[in-house]
């Protein structure tokens, strides 16, 4: 993709990598589908790095603005799905 992922200058290199991996899972959900359980693992790690709702919303909104992919819609679909399923999100 031809855009930059939203990152925080205070994050460590490992945290930046983990946040980027989370956003790649969001992309994957739109492009080819993502395993629910692997997505939730990435989301849990993302929430360890970005625990606050306001910061999460800001970062995810920035990502959606540049990519067109909604982290919010993806998380909701994944949480509603059963374990072991593959989630595919359609662009609106």
Automatic annotation (TrEMBL):
Stored Pfam families: UPF0223
Report TM segments: none
User: Looking at the record's lineage, which domain of life comes first?
Assistant: Bacteria
Q: Which family does it belong to?
A: Belongs to the UPF0223 family.
What is the protein's given name? UPF0223 protein E0Y62_02560
């Amino acid at each position: 993709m031809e855009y930059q992922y939203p990152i925080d200058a205070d994050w460590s290199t490992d945290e930046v990598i983990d946040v980027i991996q989370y956003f790649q899972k969001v992309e994957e959900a739109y492009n080819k589908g993502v395993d629910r359980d692997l997505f939730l693992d990435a989301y849990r790690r993302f929430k360890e790095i970005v625990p606050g709702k306001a910061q999460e919303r800001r970062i995810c909104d920035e990502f959606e603005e540049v990519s067109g992919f909604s982290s919010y819609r993806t998380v909701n679909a994944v949480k509603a799905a059963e374990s072991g399923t593959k989630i595919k999100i359609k662009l609106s």
